[in-house]
Amino acid sequence: MILSKVRDPRFVTIRRGGTLTDDDHRLLALWAASCAEHVLGLFETVRPDDPRPRQAIEHIRAWVRGDITMMVSRAAGGHAMGAARDLRGAARHAAYAAGQAGAVAHVAAHELGAAAYAIKAVRAAAPPEEADAAGRRECRWQRDQLPPAIRELVLDDQRLRNAICWSVFED
After folding, report:
1. 3, 52, 111, 165 — which has fewest CB within 10 A?
2. pLDDT score for 3
């Protein structure tokens, strides 16, 4: 579970009654795509012939450009999550990260899912004694990618939803 029961209005677009601007929604989508892409190789080494996670990342970027609709990006995200279903470990988490990124077009709050699953992927790929340190490095890398316009929003979201995101955002 990565979404709160009550929707945070900061992640609901203005036209739907929240406070999120379209520009910030697009920045959240691009950040989620970067988080997912950073770990995509963990999936592709296991399933090199399955394009679904990569396509989800490409689709969310196409949505940001206005080249495809929200529904197309969201569907690509669902297909990426389908690629994860019969896998375990790092490859599964990496595919889920891509799926969450694709879903940001539909629900902006999925941005944290992409980041959390990417951290889980890195942790799963590391030797057990190095997993926590690897996860912290990935979290720092992700935070370094945050555009200034959404930095405080995402950091606050990490603080608020850390417990339902497997506590991956702890320093």
Report:
1. 3
2. 83
